[in-house]
UniProtKB/TrEMBL annotation, chain A:
Keywords: Cell membrane, Membrane, Transmembrane, Transmembrane helix, Transport. GO terms for biological process: transmembrane transport. The chain crosses the membrane at residues 9-30, 96-119, 131-154, 174-193, 228-254, 274-300. This is ABC transporter, permease protein. Residues 94-293 form the ABC transmembrane type-1 domain. Pfam families: BPD_transp_1 (PF00528), BPD_transp_1_N (PF19300). One of its GO terms (cellular component) is plasma membrane. Signal peptide: none annotated. The keyword Transport applies.
TrEMBL record, chain B:
It is found in: Cell inner membrane. One of its GO terms (cellular component) is plasma membrane. GO terms for biological process: peptide transport; transmembrane transport. Its main location: membrane. This is ABC transporter, ATP-binding protein. One of its GO terms (molecular function) is ATP binding. Belongs to the ABC transporter superfamily. Residues 8-257, 276-526 form the ABC transporter domain. Pfam families: ABC_tran (PF00005), oligo_HPY (PF08352). Keywords: ATP-binding, Cell membrane, Membrane, Nucleotide-binding, Transport. It comes from Mesorhizobium amorphae CCNWGS0123. It is a peripheral membrane protein.
Length: 307, 539
C-alpha cells in the first residue's frame, strides 16, 4: 500500500509539470498583460514595471524562471496586489476557503447519506418522493439564488445571521456560506446514496443477512450501507477538490476573503503569477484527493488491492 | 425416531407480486408439511414458484411481493409474527442457503466476522466464545486451515468453499430446518457431489430436517424422503420419493422424468473434410504489470492444444470452470489472440487480423450460455437475427432480409410473427432459439456452442439439444460444443475432449470416453456426475 501511494505521488510530478506548462502558455496567449488596463500609465512607467517583473524577457526565459522559482516553493509576487506575494495571499485566504468547503462537504456527506438511505428504505413511498423532490430542487436552484435568499430571510428579515463578512471566523458568519455551498452537494449525495443503497439492499448477501435473522439495524447499517458507500467515496474526491479551493459566487456574495475569487479576478486582470498559483493549488488538491479516494476504496472494500 | 412430529406446515399459501402489468400470482394456495429430521424435496422448473414458497415462509420476498395463508412453525404462523419475533426464528430455528454461493456472502467482511454475527445475535455469546463456535463450525464443514480462513474474505475463496461457509452460517444455531434453495446448481459437478455429501453427513450428525428446492431430479431421487412436484404455482403431485419415481401419476411429473436428453450422435464418415484445425494453440493472459508496477503475472489459460473438427462432426469440450474450455473456443474463432497454428477450411488464419477475419465470420458463428444477456434488449427479435445480414449480405433488400428472418425463425421452431417483439417477452428456451436463429440465418459452416443449455430447465434443454441435432443433420454443420454437463454432451457430441487447467487430459470418441474413461480426472468427473444420482442422503 505504501509503495502504491509513493508511486502515485511520483506520477503526480509529471502531471503537475504538464498542467503548469499548459497553463503558463495558455494565459500568455490571451491578449493584454497585467499592466495594460489601467489608464494613464505612460509607456515608460509600464516598461519600467515590466522590466522589474522580468516581463520583457523572452517567453522561454520567463518560463524557465517561473519553473525555477516554483521548485523552490516561490510562487512570485502578485502583479495586481503588489504588496503581497502569491504565497502570502494563499496563506491568508486558503484556510478560510478550506474551512468553509470542508464544513460544507462534511455536512453534505452526512445529511445526504442519511436522506438517501431514508429514501432507499422507503422506495416508491412518501419518504422517497419527499427526498427526491428536495434533491431535485437542491440541484436545480443555482447558488447565486440560494445565497441572496439566505441573506434576505435569515439576515434581513429574521436577523438570525449576519448578511456577510468573515467576522474573524465566527461560527455565525460561516452558517450562510456553508449552507449555500452544501445544499447542492446534499442533493447530489442523497441521489447517489439512494441509487446505490437500493441496489445494495437488493443484493444476495443482504438476503442472507435477513435469512440469518439479523436485526434491521445490522442489515442496513453494517451490511447494506458499507457496500453502498463506494459511489459516495468516489464522488468525494473531485467534490472535495472543488469545494476546498473556494467558490467565486459564495465568497463574493457573502464577502468572504477566501481564495475562490482569485481565479476569476486574476484571470481577468492577467495577474499571471496569481493565475498560475491558483492552477497549481487546484491541481494539487485534485491529485491528492483522488489519491485519498483510491486509498479509501481499499479500506472499505477488501477486494481492492494495490501492489 | 418413531413417528416424527410435523414441525413446519404450509397451508393455503398464496404469493402475489404487484407488477406494472397487474398482480401476478406466483404461488396459488399450496399445502406442504415438513416433519422433524426428514428430507423433503420441492421440485419444479423455473417459474414453478418453488423458491418463492420458501422465500415467503422466511419473509424474504421482494418488496412488491405479498404472502397470505399459513406458514406454521411449531404452532406459530410465521407470516403474522412481528419482525423481532420472526428474527428469533430465522437463522436460529429455520435457516436457509441459496443458489448463488459467489454473491451470498458480504464481500466487505471477513468470514469470521460474518460467522460470528448470527452466533452472537441468537445465543448472546461474547466475542471470544463466538469465535470458538465459528472455528468449530468451519471444522464441521471441512474448511481446511480454519484459523487462517477466519480472516479470509469471500473473494479469496472458491464457490464450493463459499457454499461451505454458507452452510456453516446456516447451521450456526443448530436449526430444526435447513432450507436449501438449489444449493449446488451454480457449482462444478465434482464440487456439487462434495456439497451434497457434506449436507448428508451434517444431517446425520445434527438431525435437522432439510427442504431441498431443486430442478435436479438426480438429487431428488437419491436424497429425498418425500417429494412435492410444483408447476405454475401449484403442487401437482406429492408423495414418497420412491413411489413417485416408480410410478409417477401426473403427466407433468412423467414429462420431467423423461426430460433427460437421450440419443447419441454418430461420427461423420472418416473421409469427411477437416473444417477447423488447431495445432499447439496457446492462450496466455497477462495479469497486472504496467508503468512502475513490475513484471506482469502470466497465466496460460490454453496450453498447447491440438484439435481437428471435421464437417458434420460435433466435438464436445468438457471441463470444470477455469479449465480453459471457453477460452479455447474463442481462440479457435480468432476472438482472442493466441499462439500456434489455426486453419479454417483451407486457409491459415493463425495471424489473421479483424479485417481479414470479417468475411470468414459468417461461416463461424457463436451461441452463448446466457440467453438473457446475449440479446440486445432494445432491438426487436427481427432486428437481432438479421443484424449479421447487414454486414455479410449488404445487398439484400429489407424485404429479403425479412423473408430470411421468417425462414430462420421457422427453422428454430418459433412463430415468425414474433419477430416484431422484444427479447424480454420470451422465455429462456425461446431466447436460446432466437440466439440460434441469429447464428443460422448466416448459413454458417461452424457453430461454437458455449454452454448453450446450461441456463435452461431440463425439459427445455432436451428440446434445444434435439433442435441443434436436427439443424446439424439438415445443413451438415460442425459444432464445437462446450459444456460441463456430461448428460448433454453425451447426447450431442461424437468426440470428446476433456480439459483441465488449460490442458487436454483425455480425448476420444464419446462412447469410449463414457464406457471406459482412462484419465483419473475423467473418472472423477464421471463419478461425481453419477454420485449425485446415486447418493442417499438420509438412512
Amino acid at each position: 500500500m505504501l509503495r502504491y501511494i509513493f508511486r502515485r505521488l511520483l506520477t503526480a510530478i509529471p502531471t503537475l509539470f504538464v498542467i503548469v506548462t499548459m497553463a503558463f502558455f495558455l494565459i500568455r496567449v490571451a491578449p493584454g498583460g497585467p499592466f495594460n488596463q489601467e489608464r494613464g500609465l505612460s509607456p515608460e512607467i509600464r516598461a519600467n514595471l515590466e522590466a522589474q517583473f522580468g516581463l520583457d524577457d523572452p517567453l522561454w526565459l520567463q518560463y524557465a524562471h517561473y519553473l525555477g522559482n516554483l521548485l523552490r516553493g516561490n510562487f512570485g509576487p502578485s502583479y495586481n496586489l503588489p504588496d503581497f506575494t502569491v504565497t502570502e495571499l494563499f496563506a491568508k485566504g486558503l484556510p478560510i476557503s478550506v474551512q468553509l468547503g470542508a464544513s460544507a462537504l462534511i455536512l453534505a456527506l452526512l445529511l445526504g447519506s442519511v436522506l438517501g438511505t431514508i429514501a432507499a428504505l422507503n422506495q416508491n413511498k412518501l419518504g422517497d418522493y419527499t427526498v427526491i423532490a428536495l434533491a431535485t430542487a437542491g440541484s436545480t436552484i443555482p447558488t447565486f439564488v440560494i445565497a441572496p435568499v439566505i441573506q434576505l430571510v435569515f439576515g434581513l428579515t429574521w436577523k438570525l445571521l449576519p448578511i456577510g463578512g468573515w467576522g474573524d471566523g465566527a461560527f455565525i458568519n460561516k452558517v450562510g456560506p456553508v449552507l449555500t455551498l452544501a445544499l447542492p452537494q446534499i442533493a447530489i449525495v442523497a441521489r447517489l446514496m439512494r441509487g446505490s443503497m437500493i441496489e445494495s439492499l437488493r443484493s444476495h448477501h443482504i438476503r442472507t443477512a435477513r435469512a440469518l435473522g439479523l436485526s434491521d439495524w445490522s442489515v442496513v447499517v453494517k451490511h447494506a450501507l458499507r457496500g453502498a458507500i463506494l459511489p459516495i467515496v468516489s464522488f468525494t474526491g473531485p467534490a472535495a477538490a472543488a469545494l476546498l479551493t473556494g467558490s467565486v459566487i459564495v465568497e463574493t456574495i457573502f464577502s468572504i476573503p477566501g481564495v475562490g475569487r482569485y481565479f476569476v479576478d486574476a484571470a481577468l486582470n492577467r495577474d499571471y503569477t496569481l493565475v498560475m498559483g491558483t492552477v497549481v493549488v487546484i491541481a494539487l488538491f485534485t491529485i491528492v484527493f483522488n489519491l485519498i479516494v483510491d486509498v479509501m476504496y481499499a479500506v472499505v472494500d477488501p477486494r481492492v488491492r494495490y501492489d | 425416531m418413531g413417528t416424527p412430529e410435523t414441525i413446519l406446515s404450509v397451508k393455503d399459501l398464496r404469493v402475489r407480486f404487484r407488477t406494472l402489468d397487474g398482480a401476478v400470482e406466483a404461488v396459488k394456495g399450496i399445502n406442504i408439511h415438513v416433519k422433524a429430521g426428514e428430507t423433503v424435496a420441492v421440485v419444479g422448473e423455473s417459474g414453478s414458484g418453488k423458491s418463492q414458497t420458501m422465500m415467503a415462509a422466511m419473509s424474504l420476498l421482494a418488496s412488491n411481493g405479498e404472502a397470505t395463508g399459513h406458514v406454521d412453525y411449531r404452532g406459530r404462523n410465521l407470516l403474522t409474527l412481528s419482525k423481532s419475533d420472526l428474527n428469533k426464528v430465522r437463522g436460529a430455528k429455520i435457516s436457509m442457503i441459496f443458489q448463488e454461493p459467489m454473491t451470498s456472502l458480504d464481500p466487505l467482511y471477513s468470514i469470521g466476522n460474518q460467522l460470528m454475527e448470527p452466533i452472537r445475535k441468537h445465543r448472546g455469546l461474547n466475542a471470544a466464545e463466538a469465535r470458538e463456535e465459528a472455528l468449530k463450525l468451519l471444522r464441521l464443514v471441512h474448511i481446511p486451515d480454519p484459523e487462517r480462513r477466519m480472516k479470509s474474505y469471500p473473494h479469496e475463496m472458491s464457490g464450493g468453499q463459499r457454499q461451505r461457509v454458507m452452510i456453516a452460517m446456516a447451521l450456526a444455531n443448530d436449526p430444526d430446518i435447513l432450507i436449501a434453495d438449489e444449493p449446488t446448481t451454480a457449482l462444478d459437478v465434482t464440487i456439487q457431489a462434495q456439497i451434497l455429501v457434506l449436507l448428508a453427513e451434517l444431517q446425520r450428525k445434527l438431525g435437522m430436517a432439510i427442504v431441498f428446492i431443486t430442478h435436479d431430479l438426480g438429487i431428488v431421487r437419491r436424497f429425498a424422503d418425500r417429494v412435492y412436484v410444483m408447476r405454475q404455482g401449484e403442487v401437482v403431485e406429492e408423495g414418497d420419493a420412491e413411489a413417485l419415481f416408480a410410478s409417477p401419476q401426473h403427466a407433468y411429473t412423467k414429462m420431467l422424468l423423461a426430460a433427460e436428453p437421450t440419443g447419441t450422435k454418430a461420427p461423420p464418415p472418416a473421409n469427411s473434410p477437416v473444417l477447423l484445425e488447431g495445432r499447439n494453440v496457446e492462450v496466455t493472459f497477462k495479469i497486472g504489470g504496467g508503468f512502475l508496477a513490475g513484471e506482469p503475472l502470466l497465466l496460460r489459460a490454453v496450453d498447447r492444444i491440438s484439435i481437428r473438427l471435421q464437417r458434420n462432426q460435433t466435438i464436445g469440450i468438457v471441463g470444470e470452470s477455469g479449465s480453459g474450455k471457453s477460452t479455447l473456443g474463442r481462440a479457435l474463432l480468432r476472438l482472442l489472440p493466441s499462439d500456434g497454428l489455426i486453419r479454417f477450411g483451407d486457409r491459415d488464419i493463425s495471424g489473421a487480423d479483424r479485417q481479414a477475419m470479417r468475411p470468414l465470420r459468417r461461416e463461424m458463428q457463436l451461441v452463448f450460455q446466457d440467453p438473457f444477456g446475449s440479446l440486445s434488449p432494445r432491438m426487436t427479435v427481427g432486428q437481432v437475427i438479421t443484424e449479421g445480414l447487414l454486414v455479410h449480405e449488404p445487398n439484400l433488400s429489407g424485404k429479403q432480409r425479412d423473408q430470411r428472418a421468417v425462414e430462420a425463425l421457422l427453422e428454430v421452431g418459433l412463430d415468425p410473427n414474433s419477430r416484431n417483439r422484444y427479447p424480454h417477452e420470451f422465455s429462456g428456451g425461446q431466447r436460446q432459439r432466437i440466439a440460434i436463429a441469429r447464428a443460422m440465418i448466416l448459413k454458417p459452416k461452424l457453430v461454437v456452442l458455449d454452454e448453450p443449455t446450461s441456463a435452461l430447465d431440463r425439459s427445455v434443454q432436451k428440446q434445444i439439444v434435439e433442435l441443434l441435432r436436427k439443424l446439424q443433420a439438415d445443413h451438415g454443420l460442425s459444432y464445437l460444443f462446450i459444456s460441463h454437463d456430461l448428460a448433454v454432451v453425451r447426447a450431442m457430441a461424437d468426440y470428446i475432449i476433456v480439459m483441465k487447467q488449460g490442458k487436454i487430459v483425455e480425448e476420444g470418441p464419446t462412447e469410449e470416453i463414457f464406457s471406459n474413461p482412462q484419465a483419473a480426472y475423467t473418472q472423477t468427473l464421471m463419478n461425481a456426475a453419477i454420485d449425485v444420482t446415486r447418493f442417499r442422503l438420509s438412512a
